[in-house]
Amino acid sequence: MLKSMTGFGRAESTKGETSIVVEIKSLNGKQFEVNLKFSPLLKPYEFDIRSLMQQTLQRGTLDATINIRQNGATRPVVINTDLAKYYYQSITMLANQLEVPQGDILNVLMKLPEVVSPATEQMTEEEWKDVEETLKAALTDLDMHRQDEGLMLEADLMQRIDNIETYTGKVRELDPLRKDRIRQRLEGLLAEHVGKENVDGNRLEQELIFYLEKLDISEELSRLENHLRYFREILKDADAAKGKKLGFVLQEIGREINTTGSKANDAGIQQWVVLMKDELEKAKEQVLNVL
User: Fold this and answer.
1) Which residues does the UniProt record annotate as the domain Endoribonuclease YicC-like N-terminal (predicted)?
2) Are residues 32 and 91 in the same domain?
3) Do 196 and 228 belong together in one domain?
4) Is 94 exposed, middle or buried, given 0-12, 13-18 or 19+ CB atoms closer than 10 A?
C-alpha cells in the first residue's frame, strides 16, 4: 500500500479541568521538516515530540500545534504585583516627564516581561503522558488520512504505468514495419542514384544490417518493460516509504522512452512516444506526493 505525504490529523482529550488539543497538517517534502507550536511547558519534551512524529510519519513538511488549556485558559497564571507596581511607577514618571497621556496603562503592564507567569513552571510526568497519548492519537488520525490518499495515488499510478505499457506494445507492433520502410527507402535511393544493376547485393545487405542495428530499439523497449514491471513490484512492497524509489524508477523509464523516440526516426512511433511522455509526467507529479 502507498501512503501519501498529505493529510490532516486531530485529537482532543480532557482530564479533569485540563484539555489537550493536537492538530497536525502534513504536506509533501523531500525530508522530514516540522513547524512545531506548543506551550512553553512542553519545551523539555520537544525532542520526544519530534522523535515520535518522525517515527510515525517518516517524511513530509508538517505544521503541528499542541494546546493545553485549563478552565478556558492556557494555564493558571500568577501576577507579580511587586514587579507590576515597580513598572507602574517608572511608566507614570516617564509619562509625566514627557507630558504624554498614560492611557490604558494596565493593559501595558500586563504585557511587560515576567509580570504574568504560569502558576506551575513544570509539567508533571502524568500530564506529559496525557499529552503523549493525545499526540499519538492525532498521528494515527493523520496516518489514516495518508493511507486513504495513498489508495487514490496508487490507482492513478497503476493506470499511468498500464498506459505506458500499452503504448510500448503499439511501438513493438510498428517496429517491423519501420524497418521494412527504412530498407525500401535505402534500396530505392541506391537504385535511383547508382542503378540497381550496379549495387553489390552482399555489400548492401551488410550495410543495411549495420544501419538497422544503429536504429534498433528492441533493447530500449525490453528495458522499458522491465522498469514497468519493477515499478509495479515496488508498489506491492510492504515498505510504506517508497516515494523516492518510485521516483528513481520513473527517471529510468523516461530515459528509455526518450532514447526510443530519438532512435526510432519514425512519425508513427513518435506519436506513441509523445503519449508515453505525457503519462510519465503525470506519474512524476503524483509520485512527489508519495511517502
Assistant:
1) 2-154
2) no
3) yes
4) exposed
Distances (CA, A) of 254 to 83, 263, 278: 69, 14, 10
What are the C-alpha distances in Å from 69 to residues 14, 42, 47, 141? 9, 13, 22, 22
User: DSSP code of 290?
Assistant: B
38: Cβ contacts below 8 Å, ≥ 6 apart = 46, 49, 64, 65, 66, 67
Chain centroid to Cα 187, Å, comes to: 54
Select from 180, 164, 189 the least CA-distant residue to 266: 180
Residues 59 and 86 in one domain: no
The answer to whether residues 84 and 109 touch, using CB atoms and an 8 Å cutoff, is yes
Q: What is the pLDDT along the chain (291 residues), one digit of tens a residue?
A: 788 999 999 999 988 778 899 999 999 888 899 999 988 788 889 999 999 999 988 889 999 999 988 765 555 667 778 888 888 888 788 777 777 676 777 777 777 776 766 665 577 888 899 999 999 999 999 999 999 999 999 999 999 999 999 999 999 998 888 777 776 666 665 656 556 565 556 665 666 665 666 778 889 999 999 999 999 999 988 887 888 999 999 999 999 999 998 888 788 899 999 999 999 999 999 999 998
222 vs 277: CA distance, rounded Å: 17
pTM for the complete prediction?
Answer: 0.71
- In terms of domains, do 15 and 142 share one? yes
- Tell me, yes or no, whether 225 lies in a domain: yes
Same domain for 281 and 166: yes
